[in-house]
What does this fold into?
Amino acid sequence: MSRPFALLAALLLCLPALAQPDAADAGAAQAAAPRSVHASVQPAQVLLGEPFTYELVVAHAAEQRWELALPKELGAFEVLEQQRQREDAPKGGAGPVTTFRLKLAAYELGKLTLPRVTLEEAAGGAGHPGHFTPEPQTVEVRSTLGDDAAAQGAQLEDLKAPAEVAVRSWRLVWGLLAVLALGLGAWLLARVLARRHAAVPPPPPPLPLVPRTHQALRALQAEHLPEQGRGREFYFRLSDILRGYLGERFSFEALECTSSELLLALRPRAAGTGLPLAELERFVAGSDLVKYAKSEPPAPECDAALAFAHALVDRTGDVPPPPSTPSAAHASGPDVP
It folds into this structure.
């Protein structure tokens, strides 16, 4: 036999062996398919957007595990819920059963074909995972409007994209009202303060020296200090009133002078004023005796001192004072506060 014929014979002998793996693969793929698949839709008629259930009952071998794969594009359908349940020993069954339930909703009218789903084996018993695509099911989607809607001119509108809606805001109005209220409050406050300021009468002009001194002497007399055993206090206050009058009348600081300084300052100023210097000296000496000897003068003596003060003011008040002269040199003498 020639060499070419020998090679051809060897090739023909190898063909059955090469065909055996393909047959094995086909048998493995056939074995990987589920025993049965039952698909159903409940209910078969639904309203637009109403949920319904797409159920797949897969009977398969015990060593198989099937999963449900959905397409990326669902079209007019929306998956609301997905469930998977396996029973290895169902009642009246011959083997394991896996049930898939899809809760869907459709948003187009008419008789619609459900999306094609795929059953995929997670791990095949012979190491060859299988794929199975059930026959697609249909569902009839009806309008939510009544049967006479078309006759009445009613129709469903398609979904529209979100649109911006102007919302009425009162923020600017409230802001302007707040500013107006603040301005009104400030104006009212200014008016109230202006009225209060205008309602307060101006203080009366001060009394002239003579009536003011008589008023102070009468107020001292009204307190009845000698009758209460407070003659020394009476003399202190009477001395301050009379010194204040003499200092203002003859323009010098009489309240800061001692008794001797007071008399020395008055001597050059007394000419032509009616000032009774001799009587004033006796009053000053008696006042010092009461204040520093801590003796309580009787009430008649206090009344006489008060009458002398009234008379001194009357005699010197209407006569203009002489021109100011330099103060005399300080002389020693008893001090009074």
